[in-house]
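User: Show me sequence and structure for the first protein, then do the same for the second.

Assistant: Starting with the first protein.
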Amino acid sequence: MTNSRIAAVDVGNDALKALFGKLDSELYIPNVIARDIEDRPVIGIEELDEKDPVDNLHIRVHSPALKDNNAIYRVGNLATKGSNPTELDPGSSKSEEDQTLVMLFASLALDAVSREDKSQKHHGNNRNVVEANYTLGTGLPLREVKEGKDVGYRSQLLGSVHQVEFLVTPRYQGMKVNIKFDEVKVYPEGFAAFVNLVMDNDLNVINKDLIDKQILIQDIGGLSTDIAVIRNRNVDDDKAQGFNLGVAESLEAIRDEIRTKHGVELDSRRDVVDIITRKNDRHHIMVKGSRTSVHDITDRILLELAKKQYRYLRNVWQRNSQSEICYFVGGGSAVLKEYLKSLNNSLDGFNIEFFEDENESIWMMANAYYKLVSDFVRKTNRDKKQEKQKQEATSAK
């Protein structure tokens, strides 16, 4: 495992966030893909290599884990510019979607080709094939882990070679990456959020006030909401709840209403999130060159969703009355923060917390997976070293 590179990957509904190695590399890629042809047309092909590969990801993915094997995709920002971008559908399971795997493989392949590492092994004399071994830490919604879907997800990654071929992508055109997993750790997202709250990168406790409290963590994602109940430093599996409601449906509803009312076609749900959360001109769009408010649309739809999310919180808190605080995490919490705060102030007045640093909230899961998988690698290497010392001592007698 010592030659295996650590990868901590959070395939969020809005975007993939990934941390690699000794925190020497990170990636942020919008979670949008679009089926494409092999030889996509490019304006200014001679300037292609001057562009950012992350913004121009064009790949073929071969993996026995995929339902649709050997397909060609635009990924991330490039996919949003096409006519057929696909985002994960409400009601779908992250662990069972090709899109989750395509995003995962794309991020690992990007990391592998961008590294100028002496340990990279090339296939024979073909300098265009990179062999990449990873120890992966990732996660699934609590609901999917409770249903046992983490087992199938892990097994389809292990034991196979997954190949990503870069097609019309700056700098890496024609390169192939063979990805192998030495180990895959799949963590429940609620527990990962708790780990990130109370521990540093070496898993030392940094928040002693929280460590032994009974706390709730409400993780509002794009497709689902998980409420983890943490007691005795562990997720209480019986009390944890998962709901098939995230922010995706509301974002689609806002997008549809903007199209109907203003005749403006937004490319993806990401554009809606940008309108809601950006610092300047929030809740405004351009209509025929004029700055136009869509606050009436966003306010009504998001308040309705916030009321449903608040009901979830109230119901779980009633069944776990000794809880001391609820932390709201996930991309959906950033979108609904002001609405949830306002509802709480006028209704129950629960002790709730949000992360004021949006970046911290966005990277929370990737950071947690990194802490957990790094600790796993440390312990495994230590155990191997001790076993080797024991064998050497035995053979010396």
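Switching to the second protein now.
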Amino acid sequence: MLTPEGCQTRRQRLWDRIPDGIDWLLIADPRHVQYLANFLVQPLSFSGGERGLLLLEKNGRASILGDNFAIRSAIHKPYVDREVVTPWYDHQHSVKNRDHALLHALRDVSEDLVNGKGLVEAEWLPLGATEVLPAGTYDFSASQEVDDASLCDLGTILRDLRRTKEPDEIELLKQCMRAGEAGQARLFEVVTEGVSELDIYREVQFAAVKAAGRPALVYGDFRASYPAQPKSGGFPDGEGRKLQEGDLFVLDYSVVLDGYRSDFTNTVSVGEPSAGVVELHEICKAGMAAGEQVLKAGVKARDVHAAVAAPYVEAGKKDSFMHHAGHGIGLGHPEAPILVPESTDVLRAGDVVTLEPGSYVEGVGGMRIEHNYLITDSGYERLSNHEIRLN
């Protein structure tokens, strides 16, 4: 889980980016409430999809707002000074509109906000909140100058701050990686002719959750590619395709713990791979190695893409590499930096990124491989340790 120290550091980094004259912040995106207070409704509970609001005050006080069932369905105890809880269901009376319960909790703290100026995360705040917040006390943007090039909303500031991972976030991501590696290892044990895509999904999910040691979300691509259809993705459709000799099974998936996620890939051959498949796999590995050579804070994301793409160009297979060379991960997928030819992103120390070279050729097959990396000033630390091989 996240730590009190990590959440406090992130709050201070946020306040350092907020203009003078702002006394309180209302955080509404569930990912950002988790990021700053360790509060996330368990997505696998009956309150999955519900949320709380986080009120941060310049004096240091933090409050979580929500209905009684959402608050008690949190994965962990939040790091806040107070919980403002509105009864929603008491096993005795009919329930009210649950969204109104959240607004009622906001009304309960509105008197605390009258004498200050606030900034709200408008992208996720319900429009109904404008009826309960004191009129004239809040802004939607950190800058109110219409022609100001730095016009920036609270959500954008938080998304930018999320790129620099604190130690507690790195530790949580490593837990995601270890669980993901267990699923990748299980893949080699179950891939065989006649097994279905859904069977593989079940086996990988079981292995990952067992390794995590607690409930986890598992999502991604659990699909076979084959010469006539070199690119496919998503969950199995029903039972899914039953693997055949010559197929390639692409396992590109994520394990999500406390909202954070891993994302790494392997491609396994059903039976002995063809010479064409082996060639594509070698080019993918060369692309990954080339990308690793340039991973470092200060490097332009488009230059990483160019490095990964170079082996494809040299092999005369430029057009077979048709997607990004990687992307950032953390509380979202994908998130900045995005490693594509026209990206304006620059790598920063604290970024966690993927390298994801792939190759898709009709008549041969399709594949991709992927590792996860923590960017440092001097290079990188590879966070994922699964074995990349065809069989």
